[in-house]
Amino acid sequence: MKKRIIQVCLIIALIVIAYIRISNEKSKPVKETRVALGTFVTIEISEKNPDNPVIVDSAFRLIAKYEKQFSPKEDYSEIIRINTSASREVEISYDLAELLQKSQEISELTQGAFDVTIGAVSQLYDFIDKTIPYPDEIKENLKHVDFTKLHLVGYTLIKDDPAIRLDIGAIGKGFIVDKVAECLISAGIRQAAINAGGDLYVLENENGEEWRIGIQHPRDDSTLWGYITLKNAAVATSGDYEKFFMKDGTRIHHIIDPKTGLPADKAVSVTVIAPDATTADALCTAVFVMGPEKGIQLVNQLDNIEALIIYEQDGKLMQCLSDGFMNYNYEDLSQT
Ligand code: ADP
Ligand code: MG
Fold it and tell me: Is the pTM value of this prediction over 0.85?
């Protein structure tokens, strides 16, 4: 009888050890990168939580949902439905209404340097075939670029001009990053980072402190321009090196000045720190268009927003920082 009890106890002990091992194994930090949103998306959870794999998986599923809904190409997407509708009024989803509301705010703030109706012109540039539109084509299509012709009444989008084409390329990724951050936070996660091709939202790092974030050198992808530290905030970078080709010595890239319909040429790269990734993403595109002088002036007027602008002068890369940028422990590596 005694022998039997010892045997049972041994078996129970073995089961308990095995269970602890398995749950320890599951309770690891996770870092996963997948191709999504036309770039690499990395979600990293630094704390040990047995639900980490499930949480990361549901975050990627959320990204896939938005990617379908906001796709600029797929027939079934909401953006295509709006862009191909001949009607003046279109019903839109709660999410898109939220995104367009924010986008209109940034347009007003930046006096149209950011304009979600850039679609009519941005679609003329082909970065695969490396073709640029004729000046007449740009002129003709610029008539349909005007955010003031777009109005939101609840969940109804009113287009004063039916030829308006939405392009959410400069704000969509930030918006989705914010939704992923909300998803992680509501799952109880506090130590994590999300990076969608340079649009980041970071919670705390594994020690409950700031993350150290590298800023890409705009002309040397093997080097960093510098570092900043950040927690519970967003940072985004827009650069003329992301999507470009050279034509007769001119860099043709994807950030368009809505006034001219041509690639903006006052900056090379802009990094914006903001409380949320939607704002950081949209503002870095806008500040890029505005250039160092007007861009920094605007950022210095805004609360909780900082920026680093890299621009070219006499063939040399220069930088310009907003008043509070140093508060993020900026380590400048550009002179080394
Ligand atoms: P990335 O997507 O490389 O992070 P951005 O956030 O700056 O870069 O977004 C650039 C994209 O935004 C372009 O590919 C285009 O779809 C769109 N876009 C270009 N110029 C503007 C603009 N002035 N305002 C709003 N959207 C723009
Ligand atoms: Mg942007």
Answer: yes
